[in-house]
Design goal:
The chain has 399 residues and is an alpha+beta fold. It has 3 domains: 116 residues, no CATH class; 136 residues, Zincin-like (2-Layer Sandwich), CATH 3.30.2010; 114 residues, no CATH class. Strands 1, 2, 4, 5, 6, 9, 15, 17 and 18 form a 9-stranded mixed beta sheet that branches. Strands 20-21-22-24-23 form a 5-stranded mixed beta sheet, with helices on one face. Bound molecules: zinc ion (ZN). Zinc ion (ZN) binds next to helix 4.
């Protein structure tokens, strides 16, 4: 359960999150991540403050080892369920570059509430936050009931399916994105291959033609589903705020797209994230390439091609594709070059795209709703392209 109450002046958002959690192994704590308190976002003016966490009417002892981590002490056996209630309050900066921002008459919110950082294979994920514009979040999939109170005259747009005024349900998602503004909304059905309601919501102050963006989103969803398996949810929403420029940010069933001349590339890339990040999760701090290289590969399959400068570079130029965000924090200039461009060069070096796509389809099917690790992708590639793992080592890709 996620309650979101957006103040009329858009400067603050208050809410509550209620999490029902059943660990598959014993644990003595619960770890929530408070991403708006990461160094980049704090500098922009974001702040997420939490109140007392309670379970069964009792306050849980809490610790804050660092600004992005909340540890609650509670002893749980494997298979034992706890329901935790946690109130929070968010400060929203004006025209920020990162995931939380308010703009002329609207707001966009991503990674904005306390999220449970549990990986059923590894336990609690306590990666440090990235120091450059990127993601660090790792979360399991869950069912979300979301209630959003938007300021008068504004429309809320939320991950999942609207079930009543102000209420949404999102099934098997690892996060929820929210926007509120005065939007022009257009919808269509995409066959991906099951019918999916695609919505494009363009903020009134953004200069994008909704119907054109809708055609791009519908086509990307349909074509990617042919390559990587069915799109698993009933809705897909593209939000175009006025302040994202040439960037995009992916959330499950909802992406934020910058009003940009390269709109189609951004739509293709963020839509590919619905398979690589949203369906097949990964530790975005430890293995950022696992979703970014594959989303860029998916984007290239839809016809974009790589920028000429990257396509013509020798493979030896891309030696850190598999590096973690702690490496990229101090090598910022290489991040897009290696992780996005180099990831595609590395996959292309394995042979015909049809084989790589076949392996990626297998990877998506076998790791759906899970948090994948590099070994899972290498296993799928090896199965279709024997020797793939060895050949990818020179790109810095390994288990
Ligand atoms: Zn991406």
């Amino acid at each position: 359960m996620l309650d979101v109450r957006i103040a009329n002046d858009l400067k603050t958002v208050e809410g509550d999150v209620t999490v029902r959690f059943t660990p598959n192994r014993p644990t003595s704590r619960l770890v929530f991540r408070l991403w708006p308190n990461g160094p980049l976002q704090r500098r922009e003016g974001s702040q997420l403050v939490v109140g007392d966490a309670t379970a069964g009417g009792k306050t849980l002892p809490a610790a804050r080892p660092d600004p992005t981590t909340l540890v609650l002490h509670a002893t749980l056996g494997a298979g034992q369920t706890i329901t935790v209630h946690l109130p929070w309050k968010l400060t929203v900066p004006l025209e920020a570059r990162d995931r939380i921002s308010r703009f002329t008459s609207g707001i966009r919110l991503g990674s904005f509430f306390p999220v449970l950082a549990w990986d059923p294979r590894r336990g609690w994920v306590t990666d440090p936050p990235a120091r450059i514009l990127s993601e660090s979040s790792t979360t399991p999939t869950a069912d979300f009931d979301v209630h959003v109170e938007a300021p008068h005259g504004m429309q809320a747009i939320v991950s999942g399916t609207q079930v009543a005024p102000g209420r949404w349900h999102a099934h098997a998602v690892r996060d929820v994105g929210v926007a509120a503004a005065r939007f022009a909304v257009v919808t269509a059905i995409a066959h991906a291959p099951r019918p999916v309601t695609v919505r494009v919501a363009v903020a009134r102050s953004a200069s994008v033609r909704g119907p054109a963006a809708l055609r791009m989103a519908t086509s990307a969803l349909r074509r990617l589903s042919r390559l990587y398996g069915p799109y698993r949810w009933a809705t897909y929403t593209v939000v175009v705020p006025p302040d994202l420029h040439s960037a995009g940010i992916e959330y499950p069933t909802l992406t934020f797209i910058g009003a940009s001349p390269i709109l189609r590339l951004i739509v293709d890339h963020e839509t590919a994230h619905q398979w690589f990040y949203s369906l097949v999760g990964n530790d975005q701090a430890r293995d950022p390439w696992l979703d970014e290289a594959l989303a860029t590969w998916g984007e290239v399959q839809l016809g974009a091609g790589l920028p000429g400068s990257i396509a013509s570079e020798p493979a030896a130029d891309f030696r850190h594709v598999g590096a973690s965000m702690s490496y990229w924090n101090t090598h910022e200039l290489g991040y897009f070059h290696d992780v996005y461009g180099g990831g595609v060069v590395a996959l292309a070096s394995l042979g015909p795209a049809v084989k790589v796509n076949c392996a990626l389809r297998r990877y998506a099917a076998r790791n759906a709703y899970r948090i994948a690790q590099p070994g899972d992708l290498l296993e799928a590639l090896e199965r279709i392209i024997p020797g793939a793992e060895r050949r990818l080592r020179r790109f810095g890709i390994h288990r």
